[in-house]
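Researcher: Let's run the pair from yesterday's discussion. Sequence first, then tokens, for each.
Model: Starting with the first of the pair.
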Amino acid sequence: MAVLENHVLYYRPTCPYCVKVLSALDSLELSVQQRNVSADQGAADDLLGAGGKLQVPCLVIDGKAMYESSDIIAYLRTQA
């Protein structure tokens, strides 16, 4: 499994779009740091600081926030 450094995925386990991104990570055999904003207030605060909103899924790449599951999955496919 390839590890993508400087990538952080902010998610909620009950969010269907987040589940879609997590499934894509598994199928593409990619690994990124994952932070559950429902269980970790610090993660929620970091997400707000990184992207200015609490929308998930959010993939932060080198400090830049990417939203929308379809955009995130398209990006991940380029990294596989």
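Model: Moving on to the second of the pair.
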Amino acid sequence: MSLDVSAALLERAERGSVTDEEFVACVRESLPYAWQVVSGLSADLAAGGGDFADHAVPPPSEAERGQLLRALASDAIRGGLERHFGVRLAFQNCHRVAAFALTAVQSPAYREFVSPAGQLRNQSPELRNC
């Protein structure tokens, strides 16, 4: 299970009445490392004023790597994080994540980050099993 969902939140979800705020709070509490990475990227993006902020530091353990993978592989979680922080997330491997300003999703930097060539250039033997 990727999220630690309280009985009350699950009951509301079964009724279809979960807010984005409730969902994002569940993500924040369940996946603290992924939250830290995405919130840090969002803060860096806001402070830097550029088109994107990039994170390429390997997670400290497999547990943290799993959190990041779960957060970015789930459409619902990723979308919730993007809406909450007002960014577009891009993901290349087990730890390389970028947050792009919504106005930059058609920029050359974004297109390069999500391109097949960009993906291939970001590979190394160490990342093969991550």
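Researcher: Give me one sentence on the second I can quote.
Model: The chain has a mean pLDDT of 88.
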